[in-house]
């Protein structure tokens, strides 16, 4: 199935000449009824239940958009539901792993629910263990989060797919009074990645936090759309994005804080840090604050630039080449986000992330074959 559809639409259009109001999802999707890679799920902690044949969620807006939801509907994407019972404080994260090989496809949906007073951490890892440099395929995922009164959900998504994958990741959440949803994401692999997060904050003191790290190398394309909608009083959101773009890669970030009428006393902050390592990169950023309420405080900022020549000279004088300096800087941004991720019982995830970043910098680029360029 050839794709040519709208995705990651801004809530409110800006100037058309910027060509950032939306993205066009292009690529090949699997046919319904074909082979579908399902996740491996770790042993569930006490107080957490799994329903592997749940129904699709309703009532949450999607930052990816209706067209992607319709695509997942047409594929009959299976739904599983994880629920942490009321008051359960789960210390051990639930780990879900998708192992994708060349030519494989996955299209799945998850509902993650924390009842009142519960705490739950879920780690999702998508990787291509074999032939990651050339592995191709399709990976589409939708995740719905429901945090009950006073509950906390920490969702972690780590994308380590092969360099020819099409990856679409759509997350939607809603928080009850005094609840917190925390989304931590690392986007490192795939050829084309479309990442969307929508956070609904309708209740008193409901909170949302996201921390995203990325690395775009070669000809990778990463398109992100983050939206936090404040309708409850004294709600709060914090969104941070950090990453590196090099070679001829292209990255787009849309971040929207939407203060709607009635959300008095609410606060929001979005910050972006982007390191540009090559003259041929394409970097687009559009932070938005929409305001329909007077008694709110919203902030946004962006730091976009290159490594300074003074810093490069200093490091080179101590035997550190330009490529090594770039790796150190890129790894620091990734690590600042990766440090927020629990490593899980197998203790392998942090090492897997470090290895992936190192291999990205050692891969051949435009005939340089990973040489240390001074």
Structure, explained:
This protein has 374 residues and is mostly beta strands. 13% of the residues lie in helices and 46% in strands. The protein is built from 4 helices and 20 strands. The longest helix is centred in the last third of the chain and has 17 residues, at 322-338.
Summarize the structure.
Helices cover 13% and strands 46% of the residues. The chain is mostly beta strands. Helix 3 packs antiparallel against helix 4 (349-362).
Strand elements, count? 20
Largest sheet report:
9 strands, mixed
Mean pLDDT: 90
Calculate Rg over CA atoms: 20 Å
Distance between the termini: 46 Å
Q: Class by helix and strand content?
A: mainly beta
Supply the number of helical segments.
4
User: Which oligomeric form is depicted?
Assistant: single chain
Record the strand order, biggest sheet. 3-6-8-10-12-14-16-18-20
Low-confidence stretches: 365-374
Strand content: over 45%
Fraction of helical residues:
10-25%
Q: Which of globular, elongated, flat, extended, rod-shaped describes the shape?
A: globular
H/E series, N to C? EEEEHEEEEEEEEEEEEEEEEHHH
